[in-house]
Amino acid sequence: MRVLFLTSGHRTPSTRFRILPYIQYLQDHGIHCRVASSFPQKYDYLPWMGFRPSQKLKRLTRWLHLLEAKLRSFDVLYLEREIFDDDSVEMEQRFRECVPKLIYDLDDALFLRRPEKVETLTRMSDLVVAGNPQIATVLADWQNKIHVIPTTPSVSVFKPIPRPSARDVPVIGWIGTSGNVAYLAVVAEALRELSRRCSFELRLIAPDLDALKDIDLAGVQVRHLPWDGDREAIHVADFDIGIMPLFAEQEWDRYKCPTKLTQYMACGLPAVVSPVGFTADVLENEVTGFHASTTEEWVSTLQRLLQSEQLRREMGTKARQRAEQVYSVEANASRLLAAIRNVVSDQ
Known about the structure:
By secondary structure, the protein is an alpha/beta fold. The protein is built from 14 helices and 12 strands. The mean pLDDT is about 95. The strands form 2 sheets. Strands 2-1-3-4-5-6 form a 6-stranded parallel beta sheet, sandwiched between helices. The chain has a 6-stranded parallel beta sheet with strand order 9-8-7-10-11-12, sandwiched between helices. It folds into 2 domains: about 1-150 and about 330-345, Rossmann fold; about 170-325, Glycogen Phosphorylase B (Rossmann fold, 3-Layer(aba) Sandwich). Helices cover about 40% and strands about 15% of the residues. It is globular. It has helices spanning about 15-20, 20-30, 50-70, 90-100, 110-115, 115-125, 135-140, 190-195, 230-235, 260-265, 280, 295-305, 310-325, 330-345, and strands spanning about 1-5, 30-35, 75-80, 100-105, 125-130, 145-150, 170-175, 200-205, 220-225, 240-245, 270-275, 290. α2 crosses α14 (about 330-345), α3 (about 50-70) runs parallel beside α4 (about 90-100) and α8 packs across α12 (about 295-305). It starts with a strand and ends with a helix. One of its GO terms (molecular function) is transferase activity.
């Protein structure tokens, strides 16, 4: 069986967590995988080339991928999100015409920005793989064959590191894209208050922190680690507590896949999160961490964790177990394999 994966690029979170970690498992089980990525990556451009020429190069790359799809006998086209970051569907339709089966993978609320495009892609697919039940519910209006496979890390990559003793200044950590740094505004007031009560370091992993200039973290000890894909897992594992603040009033956030939360869990860390959408389902409140909806809840839950190494260890152990059982590549690889096999056998 031959599967052509159309992906956004190896640095794009959806590719990094929803496609690439599964390739070896699929190949070990008889699936020939060809990963065809956008070049330049879907949301990037080559500075030396310029924006418009980079967009033309992306289209040329996809035309070459289409030629390959026509010349080689693929059984399945596995489409991650969309081919181009715009409203067009013509290229997806061309690919659909030359591959017998289409699996459409969606891990966020693209339907809020491009409803007609997502409806078209969902209807033309033979199976949808949704990143969470909230997304699946929306897409169910257009497709009755939907599998939910969460966006998760590999627990063989993201794993706890030895901790001989508690450090004097615990680390509250956050990881994300540069654009998502703005979410820290949700918890800024709580962090300022917490800094008056406890010693801690706020460690932020992101390509850059330009958006932080608009967020008041006066009095908070902040350390920035530039995102490094090769060291990402080690850097996350070196947190003591993970946080995932969200904007409760934003519809987009109700459909987010809590990738950073599952990274924390895999590393054996307790977390405090905004209980919005699927994030509230993944974190078991008062078991693997805490839900926090108000500044007072953020302060009290983080303070409890900062002041008790034992509580951090107990919750972190349960979080790791939950990741191994449900929220990891290893827990979901067989489900993805079955989905691909089933869509081919379903004539």
